[in-house]
Write a structure and sequence with these properties.
By secondary structure, this protein is mostly helical. It is built from 9 helices and no strands.
Length: about 200
């Protein structure tokens, strides 16, 4: 029984250490430049121990991408009761995501540099990126459309176009921040959302 309890404790802990080490190494050296041996060494685990959790590097990458999604959802805080019109809630969520991203440089570097800086990006990463972009665009445009339908936002707002511009802005701010880590992308995104609140809402929230 003790061995079972130990396995239950050490299994998730080992998996978390492996994913943490993979995030650091993928971000620093790129996905192609990182070996499973290097990840195992950085995680303080044997290679066979790593392979027990992740049988190959693409499976490990899938685990890393799932962790990125988990952290994004955590930053949004799905249980939080956002107040105000749908568009205001959307802007609150955007600010929360950017604030969380600014606290985790390795994850952002991983997306912008470690995985997608090559034509040979793994299929799992390409699928994840496509699904993530589609989900972000759909969710954000849905909130904007909800605000327009409720009369909370100007009727001439194009939800899909505005969602795409906001997503592009977030990506551009992250690129600037990776070049200059003194750049405050949270203040920058709040500058944009303040303008959008003022210009798009039918009345002040």
């Amino acid at each position: 029984m003790a061995r079972t309890r130990d396995a239950e404790v050490t299994g998730p802990a080992s998996r978390a250490r492996i994913i943490g080490a993979a995030i650091t190494l993928f971000a620093a050296n790129g996905y192609p430049g990182t070996s499973l041996i290097a990840v195992a060494r950085a995680a303080g685990i044997s290679q066979s121990g790593l392979l027990h959790h992740f049988p190959d590097k693409e499976v490990l990458l899938t685990g890393v991408l799932a962790e990125m999604d988990r952290q994004t959802l955590e930053s949004v805080d799905a249980d939080r009761e956002y107040e105000g019109p749908a568009l205001v809630r959307a802007f609150d969520i955007i600010e929360a995501i950017v604030a969380r991203n600014q606290q985790n440089r390795e994850l952002i570097k991983l997306v912008h540099v470690g995985i997608f800086n090559t034509d040979n990006a793994p299929e799992a990463a390409r699928v994840w990126a496509q699904e993530r972009l589609h989900r972000m665009r759909t969710d954000l445009s849905g909130l904007i459309e909800q605000a327009v339908s409720a009369g909370e936002a100007r009727a001439d707002v194009d939800p899909a176009a505005l969602a795409s511009v906001i997503i592009a802005t977030i990506s551009g701010l992250e690129e600037q921040w990776l070049i200059d880590d003194s750049f405050d992308m949270v203040s920058a995104i709040r500058g944009l959302t303040d303008i959008l609140r003022r210009d798009l809402l039918s009345s002040s929230p």
